[in-house]
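Reminder to self: tokens first, then the designed residues, so the page reads top to bottom the way the pipeline ran.
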């Protein structure tokens, strides 16, 4: 049934009921040792309105490792300051895994999009150049927008990733070899893994991403970026944000979204709201099984998608 003006809380409660059978399916990420310890059967979902109201179900206030969801915030901050960034990073989807080296060689060090690890390394490099401290800038942004000043970088998760980041180091060296990094590889890697290690709740993420649903306005009403840039960012999320299953995600729930291997997904209903769902059991592409199911249920129950 299509709901025209939904009671958000009721819809989220129904979505939670819908996905109960699949919570716990999938496997937790093992590439980062600290994430391999998380229980795959956890689940939370939050919805934030542009005005800052929050609704939630399950463990929507529990912090989790946002991992690649951070790519949306860091790229947003760079785009807001420098729309020439598109010369250093493309906006085409990739059918290869998020940490693949293959296309980077072929495209001479220009990552195919900002949501692959290669793209996020160039983003971290640019944000560092713009601000002097990409992590501090990002932390300040998500704390300010979410209103939660206890958001932290989980240093144990960052250290755990840094201790085993040969593939990201290989990507960064290849990018540097093609002249697309301004800072030393080890500095960019440290900044990148720290960003991925942000610990935030579904409520925090949904609130912090409101500029995507709000035409580029920050929570205080000031402009982060023009509507045309938000359109481009949301479009890039739609075609590139769900690893190599962006087509499947568009087919199932039809919203711009970004996934992280911590099991989180942020999804945008332009002009209406932002959703964040978290459940650590992942499918073979790295997307949360229950998370995708929840977004599909939300879209079906509300009739909302960008299509
Ligand atoms: N820090 C993770 C990595 O670089 C992020 C992966 C992800 O969430 O997509 O592998």
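Designed residues (307 positions):
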């Amino acid at each position: 049934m299509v709901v025209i003006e939904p009671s958000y809380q009721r819809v989220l409660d129904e979505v939670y009921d819908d996905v109960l059978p699949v919570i716990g399916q999938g496997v937790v990420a093992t590439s980062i040792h600290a994430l391999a310890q998380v229980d795959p059967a956890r689940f939370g979902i939050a919805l934030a309105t542009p005005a800052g109201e929050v609704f939630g179900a399950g463990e929507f206030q529990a912090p989790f490792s946002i991992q690649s969801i951070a790519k949306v915030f860091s790229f947003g901050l760079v785009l807001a300051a420098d729309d020439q960034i598109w010369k250093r990073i493309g906006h085409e989807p990739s059918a290869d895994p998020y940490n693949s080296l293959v296309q980077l060689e072929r495209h001479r060090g220009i990552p195919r999009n900002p949501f692959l690890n290669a793209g996020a390394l160039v983003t971290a490099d640019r944000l560092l150049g713009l601000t002097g401290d990409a992590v501090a800038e990002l932390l300040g942004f998500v704390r300010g927008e979410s209103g939660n000043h206890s958001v932290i970088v989980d240093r144990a998760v960052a250290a755990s990733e840094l201790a085993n980041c040969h593939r990201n180091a290989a990507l960064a060296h290849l990018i540097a070899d093609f002249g697309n990094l301004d800072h030393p590889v080890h500095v960019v890697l440290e900044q990148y893994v720290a960003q991925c290690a942000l610990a935030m709740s579904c409520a925090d993420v949904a609130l912090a991403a409101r500029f995507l649903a709000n035409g580029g306005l920050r929570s205080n009403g000031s402009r982060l970026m023009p509507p045309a840039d938000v359109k481009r960012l949301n479009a890039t999320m739609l075609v590139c944000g769900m690893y190599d299953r962006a087509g499947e995600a568009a087919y199932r729930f039809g919203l711009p979204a970004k996934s992280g291997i911590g099991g989180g997904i942020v999804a945008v209903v332009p002009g209406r709201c932002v959703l964040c769902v978290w459940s650590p059991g992942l499918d073979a592409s790295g997307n949360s099984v229950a998370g995708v199911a929840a977004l599909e249920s939300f879209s079906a129950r509300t009739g909302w998608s960008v299509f």
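The longest strand covers residues 264-269.
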